[in-house]
What does this fold into?
Amino acid sequence: MKIEDIKLKIERSEFYKNYNVKQLIKLVIDLYESYRIENTNLEYDGDMLLFQCGEDSLSKDYFIVDITRQIIPDLDDIDEATDAMQQLSTTFKFLPSEAAFALSTTSQWCSALNEVDSLRAFIENSEAFQWAIKNDVVKVDIELSYI
It folds into this structure.
């Protein structure tokens, strides 16, 4: 499967259309567990997940909760592989508030299938996730980019 196919699955989900934080994050993790991306190697961090939350570092206009799938192609030339690295980010944006910005900025990587349960537990137990599922999402951005 290609990373673009994963993006389409996320965009076509009811969870995306309804801004359902809990179910959409679950979907992204389930897709990570179920589908390998072509030409990546899990043993060399070729397909990973990153959960992160905090103040939007670019605009400062939002508090964000984000789950990103990062892939690195399995190429012989490490420089070419790094240049071809892609991220598929699903970013939930919330209006800034004292309560949101009082939450700890946090992040957690998942670099292998045997770490998925640990990532799920980290997310479910994070203050930001618990806050996010109780508050209104302003928008959800899904972006596929080279980094």
Remarks:
- The helical segments are 3-11, 14-17, 21-34, 78-83, 98-101, 116-125, 127-132.
- The longest strand covers residues 47-55.
- The mean pLDDT is 91.
- The two ends are 20 Å apart (CA to CA).
